[in-house]
Model the fold of this input.
Amino acid sequence: MTQRHVIKTLNKYPIHSLPIPIHAIEEIIADNGYSLSCCDGICKPCIYQFELILPKFKTTSDCRYALAHELGHISVHGREKSTIDTISKHEAIADAFALYFTMPPYLFEKDIKRMNEWDLAEKYGMPVEQVINRMKLCDHYQYQ
Ligand SMILES: [Zn+2]
Done:
């Protein structure tokens, strides 16, 4: 389900370089009608009405993952208000979206056969722990 959403997004906004550029994710978010701003005083990104407010990130890979996660909320859930009991489900979906989006289907599944998690982290510009989470989403998860 989430994977299909990511493929639809990547088809609409083709990205030809890896790691997926931060500005490319920001442009897709802006194209969905959201403005982005940065705030020093917060530790997690938050969406308020049509504004996405971001904290200062320590690393580019953290920033990339967080932006992709927020894009997941925006493109999967849109503007519908979430109720309390679906918040954790929404988070899980946004996380899966971020993993598929930053480590695109097919490409990643091919790379997993010949690269280790450190090389994958470098190629896709993601934290190693997220690479491992992405590996768990592969149909034939054979990494040991
Ligand atoms: Zn979230």
